[in-house]
Amino acid sequence: MGRQNQLVIKNDPLVVESNIPITEVSTASMQRPVEDLYDDVIVTKNGFFLGVVSIRELLLKLVETQVAIASFLNPLSSLPGNKLIDEKLDEALKLPEFSLIYFDLDHFKAYNDTYGFNRGDKILLYLTDILKRNVAGVDDFLGHVGGDDFVAILPHYEVGPICQKIINEFDDKITNFYELEDLAQLQVPNRAGELELFTCTSISIAVITNEYQQFETAEQLSDAVARLKMVCKKKPGSCYFINAKQNCLVH
């Protein structure tokens, strides 16, 4: 039409580097003025033009990514599940210092049998909230194995105070999930089928570190913490054990 292109071009299009997470690009795209919402996104690499992405392509990829992420998360707690836990265990073996923490609830089956899975899930969410508050370091990892089993991987050995704080917070309000008269007189069958007095749910925490022993595989690490967990669960009430020089520190 013989007119200058400066009349129609945009001086501030959305330009992103190729390594920016897709979620951030999607958010930035949707925050543009209405008339710009469906403009292509310009992609650069090290400041040089790489290509363009349409909003349709961007949103389709975002949905695909979110579905993939959801498949790796526990549907109840929204914490990473077994696949990501296995990957983190492999990564932990390469760290100069790490602590693997296994959290397991005691007498939780009896609670589910008495009150139902819906109320049992509320206890799991109660524990999830406590763990998220206390395992919150930048390099900390928290995962949900399934059921009432959770794991954490911390890049240091200073886990005693963290375990004690988790126990204190858990024990502080766990009785709120019970009918108090049940704790005083109700009898339920244990795993052996024998009747025993209904016991309030407690938490057992087993900790394995590489301070005094080294592990070559994630399987060795998982086996060690599982064995220690069984020792811990024999102790009545909430407690944590830390493996050190093949000795368990009992708290």
Report on the architecture of this protein.
By secondary structure, the chain is an alpha+beta fold. It folds into 2 domains: 5-71, CBS-domain (Roll); 82-250, Reverse transcriptase/Diguanylate cyclase domain (Alpha-Beta Plaits). Helices cover 39% and strands 23% of the residues. The chain is built from 8 helices and 11 strands. The chain has helices at 22-30, 55-71, 82-92, 108-115, 117-134, 160-173, 180-185, 218-233, and strands at 15-17, 41-45, 48-53, 99-106, 141-146, 149-154, 187-189, 195-197, 202-209, 239-244, 247-250. It has a 6-stranded mixed β-sheet, sandwiched between helices. The protein is elongated, with a radius of gyration of 25 Å. Residues 244-251 have low confidence and may be disordered.
Estimate the global geometry from the Cα principal axes: elongated
Query: What is the string of SSEs from the N terminus onward?
Result: EHEEHHEHHEEHHEEEHEE
Major sheet size, sense and barrel closure: 6 strands, mixed
* Total beta-strand segments: 11
- Enumerate the strands of the largest sheet in spatial order, edge to edge or round the barrel: 5-6-4-9-10-11
Give the overall average pLDDT: 88
Name given to the CATH homologous superfamily of the largest domain = Reverse transcriptase/Diguanylate cyclase domain
CATH topology of the largest domain: Alpha-Beta Plaits
Number of domains: 2
Distance between the termini: 83 Å
What percent of the residues sit in helical stretches (DSSP H or I)?
25-40%
Strand content: 15-25%
CATH architecture designation of the largest domain: 2-Layer Sandwich
Low-confidence region ranges = 244-251
- Radius of gyration using CA atoms only: 25 Å
Count of alpha and pi helical runs:
8
Look at the structure and give the CATH class of the largest domain.
Alpha Beta
